[in-house]
Amino acid sequence: MVKELDEKSDSLPDHVGWRLWQASRAWQAEFAAAMRADGHAWFTDARAGLLGHIPRGGTRQSALIERSAVSKQAVQQLLDGLEAEGVIERLPDPRDGRGKLVRYTRKGLDALRDGDRIKLQIERGYIDRIGERRFAALVDALRALDAGQGDLLETTARIRGETSESK
Amino acid sequence: MVKELDEKSDSLPDHVGWRLWQASRAWQAEFAAAMRADGHAWFTDARAGLLGHIPRGGTRQSALIERSAVSKQAVQQLLDGLEAEGVIERLPDPRDGRGKLVRYTRKGLDALRDGDRIKLQIERGYIDRIGERRFAALVDALRALDAGQGDLLETTARIRGETSESK
DNA sequence: TCCGTATAGTCAAGATACTTGACGATATTC
DNA sequence: GAATATCGTCAAGTATCTTGACTATACGGA
Question: Which GO BP terms apply (chains A, B) (predicted)?
Fold first, then answer.
């Protein structure tokens, strides 16, 4: 139980990226645990990442592909899983024979509702921990950061190599 | 190119967790791209997550396992990869015949140095985007959040189910 | 109207990053 | 010394992503 070397003092990271990563992981772990405790056993981080891009009113699968920062095949596989779990369903798009509409099932909407509640609970916990002022500053800074950036999509699209140079 | 439905207006997420996640992903994507551009082709997010827990002076593999929020087998596999890449090396622990010491090779230390530089560049970019004041508030809030929490490890350890109830 | 091309989605195969389970070797404790 | 715990490894399986190849539908002219 005795720490023989005080490695804590030896340059473990403390920069924005690391902090953001830790904070993000902590939030996700807390949220996912609460969701599963609420009976949504199908909930995973990867699925959450995708669901975040599906508005309550539904969307086209192709729109989803544009927004999320992964390949269309990845989106498809995640949707396959969510569909199998009964969280979302896919319908043919009446306006485009090629397209599919993705929308929530009752089960999915229930999960969203629970998610909203949990989200607020976590926020309350954060405010308790760091104070309302700091919390507001945090959100403000994150929003500014997001707005100031061409956002993740461009970056990843660029990295991935412009599927179609629609110049 | 015409947006037929204005889905933007339909409840896409805007809460701390989502913002943190997006910000974290953006940071990592930027960092990883810069690292690879600098010749560290072996660099991946998962490896970065582990390296962040290895102090420059090295550490015991078991200490690494305690700190990182994944299973010991995952840590091992990541170390296997890093060792194969020549980034770290493992030596027997002279003080405990069971243990192994993990430390950086020259190549690893070079990568850390480059990483530090890139990290500062990214920070500079952030400050340009949102201003020094907001940036300071961001870091301050993240630090407070981290300090206020029993941190990620307890949570994940609890979730995973207490390998050994060392009561 | 028909043809070329772009777009939406699917199928298949493989890589990476994890997981749990089982195990051998060394320490520790009594 | 013997029971027990810890450290690391080996093996096998799962989730999440990737690239490549393909089908079906839509669209924009000649």
Answer: response to stress
Q: Please report, as a single letter, which amino acid is at residue A56.
A: R
CA distance, residue B153 to nearest chain A CA (Å): 9
Q: Return d(Cα B135, Cα B2) in angstroms, integer.
A: 36
CA atoms of B123 and A71, how far apart (whole Å) = 29
SS3 of chain A:
CCCCCCHHHCCCCCCHHHHHHHHHHHHHHHHHHHHHHCCCCCCCHHHHHHHCCCCCCCEEHHHHHHHCCCCHHHHHHHHHHHHHCCCEEEEECCCCCCCEEEEECHHHHHHHHHHHHHHHHHHHHHHHHHCHHHHHHHHHHHHHHHHHCCHHHHHHHHHHCCCCCCC
What is the per-residue pLDDT across A107-119, written as a single tens digit (0 to 9) for each? 999 999 999 999 9
Nearest to B145 by CA among A138, A13, A146, A115: A138
At a CB cut-off of 8 Å and minimum separation 6, what does A142 contact? B16, B19, B20, B22, B23, B138
Is A62 within 7 A of strand D by CB distance?
no
Q: Please state the separation of Cα A124 from the chain's center in Å.
A: 20
Q: What is the pLDDT along chain A (167 residues), one digit of tens a residue?
A: 333 344 444 567 889 999 999 999 999 999 999 999 999 999 999 999 999 999 999 999 999 999 998 999 999 999 999 999 999 999 999 999 999 999 999 999 999 999 999 999 999 999 999 999 999 999 999 999 988 765 455 555 545 443 333 32
CB-side exposure of A61: number of CA atoms within 13 Å? 24
**What are the residues whose beta carbons fall under 8 Å from the beta carbon of B7, sequence distance 6 or more?**
A55, A57, A59, A63
Candidates A20, A27, A143; nearest CB to B27: A20
Cβ separation of A55 and B11 shorter than 8 Å? yes
Is A130 in Cβ contact with B148 (below 8 Å)?
yes
| Domains of chain B, each with CATH number or no CATH | 17-158 (1.10.10.10)
Measure, in angstroms, how far nucleotide C16 C1' is from residue A64 CA: 24
